[in-house]
Structure formats: structure tokens, C-alpha cells
Design a protein that fits this description.
Layout: E1 3-6, H1 12-23, E2 27-32, H2 36-49, E3 53-57, H3 63-77, E4 82-85, H4 101-125, E5 130-135, H5 148-168, E6 172-179, H6 207-219, E7 228-231
Helix pairs in contact: 1-2, 1-6, 3-4, 4-5
Length: 239
């Protein structure tokens, strides 16, 4: 069975991504840090589908912790062929005069540095033909007022993708995805939402929309690498 590691799989998009992979016959490594309860729910759901699952706890900002946890899980569960770098943070809105170094560093560590750490360690174990898929954001392309650390960190994720694609070729392909407004039932965030009528497709996205792009990058020719696509119903190009 193919295996995938999904970071931040205990809630929101990561939870939906992990479940969608299991529904398509993948075994799943469920990473979490603080969302233990949610991760266990995902584990139980996947186990009920008949797919294999395991839990992986690690603070992705700590390279030594990531290295140890990856090594332990890979030795016992097997090495996945796909890494989904989904974990990230969407900090509260702050005008620049209220921002401090911690605000900036926190976003950079979780949205950019963590993707570098996990990708580097994954590459040490991965077989030729493996994939890394980074979840970036429409905020890596657009500017929303009072979201400076988020924009810079997600733009960093997009450029990290391109740099990793060059560094890890020809062994591993690396691509990224920019979710637009992806609505998760009963789990809203304060991500800026345009009116649905302003989105060309006339609605907000859902996890299935996002997963369509993820599944493509997870299964397409590995000759496709260094690419970044938006799953936003056309929102970006009409602004």
C-alpha cells in the first residue's frame, strides 16, 4: 500500500487531507503537535476504513525532535512515498506598529522553516520517485492588510518549493498549492473572505477541492516539479 505523511493532521485541512488519502487506499502517518485529540480521531477513522495509520508527535520547529520522530516511525511503519507539509499558522491580524520580532519569527518558523526541516529529513529516507507537497497559501501571492508575517512566510513557502525542487531532483519532486478560501464545517478561521459572488466559481472551496490538487501532485509524473498552483475558484486572478 502507498504511504503518506501529513503534517498538522489533527485538525482542519490536515485532518481532511489525511482522511481523503485513507479513503483512496493510502496508509497514513498522522503528525500532530498540540492537536492530540483530533489526531486520535483521525487515527480511529482511518483504522475503521481498513487502512493502516500511526501517530507521530513532534514540534516541527525542533529539527532534532523531527529527526528522531521520523526515524522511529519510518523504522516501524515504513517510509512514505509522499510528504504533505500542511502544518502552519495563521497569526492574528496586527498593524505593523504592534508587531514584534516574535510575531515574525513564529510565522516564519512554522510556515517556512518547518517545511524545510521536514523535507530535508524526509529526503534522507525517501526512495527515488517520492514527492513533497507544500501547502502554501493565496496569501503568498496577495497582500491582506495587517498580515505581514503571514504573507512573508507563505511567500517563503512558495520559493522554498522551487529551491527544494532544484535541490532534490531527480530523486524527489516538490510542488506547492495555494488554498484560497477553504471552508471546513464547524471550524472557521478569520481568513479574509471575499463575497462568494466575487469568486468566479461562485462559491468557497472545500477540502475535496483542495485534495484534487494534492492527489494530482501525489500521483502525476515526477517530471512535474517546482510548480505552484492555486485552488481558489479563480479568486486570485480577478482581484
Amino acid at each position: 500500500m502507498p504511504k503518506v505523511l501529513v503534517t498538522g493532521a489533527g485538525k482542519r485541512l490536515g485532518k481532511g487531507i489525511a482522511i481523503n488519502f485513507a479513503r483512496r487506499g493510502w496508509d497514513v502517518i498522522i503528525h500532530y503537535n498540540q492537536s492530540e485529540e483530533g489526531a486520535k480521531e483521525v487515527f480511529n477513522y482511518i483504522s475503521e476504513t481498513g487502512q493502516m495509520a500511526c501517530l507521530l508527535k513532534a514540534d516541527l520547529r525542533d529539527s532534532s525532535a523531527v529527526e528522531k520522530s521520523f526515524k522511529d516511525v519510518f523504522e516501524n511503519f515504513g517510509v512514505p512515498s509522499v510528504l504533505i507539509n500542511n502544518a502552519g499558522v495563521f497569526p492574528e491580524a496586527k498593524p505593523i506598529e504592534k508587531l514584534n520580532e516574535f510575531d515574525f519569527e513564529f510565522a516564519m518558523e512554522l510556515n517556512t522553516k518547518a517545511q524545510f526541516i521536514t523535507s530535508k529529513i524526509f529526503a534522507e529516507y525517501a526512495q527515488k520517485g517520492s514527492r513533497v507537497i507544500n501547502i502554501a497559501s493565496l496569501g503568498g501571492l496577495e497582500i491582506w492588510k495587517n498580515r505581514l508575517p503571514y504573507h512573508v512566510s507563505k511567500a517563503g513557502s512558495i520559493h522554498l518549493t522551487r529551491a527544494l525542487a532544484a535541490e532534490l531532483a531527480p530523486k524527489i519532486s516538490v510542488n506547492s498549492i495555494n488554498p484560497g478560501v477553504i471552508v471546513v464545517p464547524d471550524d472557521e478561521t478569520d481568513i479574509p473572505k471575499p463575497k462568494e459572488s466575487r469568486i468566479p466559481m461562485g462559491r468557497y472551496g472545500n477540502v475535496d477541492d483542495l485534495f484534487s490538487a494534492i492527489e494530482f501532485f501525489a500521483t502525476c509524473s515526477n517530471y512535474i516539479t517546482g510548480q505552484n498552483i492555486s485552488v481558489d475558484g479563480g479568486q486570485h486572478f480577478v482581484r
